[in-house]
Amino acid sequence: MELIMKNMFQSLGKSRTANRLAKKYGLRFGAARFVAGETIQQSITAVRGLNQDGRVATLDHLGEFVFSEEEALESAAMCIKTLDAIAESGVKSNLSLKMTSLGLDISRDLCVTSMKRILERARVHNNFVRIDMEDYAHCQISLDIYRELRKDYDNVGIVIQAYLFRTMQDIDDLASLGANLRLVKGAYKESPQVAFPDKSAVDENYKKIIEKHLTNGHYTAIASHDEAIIKHTKQFVSEHGISNDQFEFQMLYGICDELQKQLVKEGYRVRIYVPYGVDWFGYFMRRLAERPANVWFVLKNMFK
């Protein structure tokens, strides 16, 4: 039953029709738990609240359903506005983005040009931009563009997904760049030909890539709510004398709030991924697919 529900929500998240309906009806039925709002100001307010108890953030203007150059340019403009708003407000936050929202599926050149504009503005504000990894079909081109950008920019990082077979090789290949990586398990539905179908295998690979990237001496963001993974990381850095300045724990807005605060009290850097915007439906569906408890939260809200 759980697998059926997971597949259903992942499929819904890719539906253009469902996405249009979601935009029409807004953040209802519990989505506001996971999405900070539809405007920049709402997201800045959310980040300010996180900063007050020691958490930093990365803001993401959601946008996965971009079908025209005009929409892609609008999305890039929102990324720049977000960087400006972060600087003007003084909140502690980076920027995260998906390159499909910048028109990657329309034109590689369009996407790269926008990425450079965004990184230039981030450089002006002494800020950092994280490229989110998407499904397997976008993996290689995302890494290729990242390598291209790193020739001129050191304020950009990317995400690597533990559930892909190729990931360990990607870690090795990126080592020479001194890449700042966010390491995640992976939330997209992928073929067993390219990804580990078994959760235990994903968890084991996740631990291995965390260890490898930390041992390589490069900055590592461990993005997980899995307390076993967090405990493993704590033990590994302690045993190998790795400074807390070389890594951070990352979690999603609205999930495991008490665990986030506890890690801050223990002296770890904790960064919260804070999404906002009207194009929130795909993100919301992935959160429901990841954890059945989130579904019951939403169902309860529907009847309030």
UniProtKB/TrEMBL annotation:
It comes from Paenibacillus ferrarius. Pathway: Amino-acid degradation; L-proline degradation into L-glutamate; L-glutamate from L-proline: step 1/2. The keyword Flavoprotein applies. The keyword Ribosomal protein does not apply. Its cofactor is FAD. One of its GO terms (molecular function) is nucleotide binding. It catalyses: L-proline + a quinone = (S)-1-pyrroline-5-carboxylate + a quinol + H(+). GO terms for biological process: L-proline catabolic process to L-glutamate. Its EC number is 1.5.5.2. This is proline dehydrogenase. FAD binds at M133, Q161, K185, G186, A187, K199, S224, H225. It is an enzyme of class 1 (oxidoreductase). Residues 46-298 form the Proline dehydrogenase domain. Binds 1 FAD per subunit.
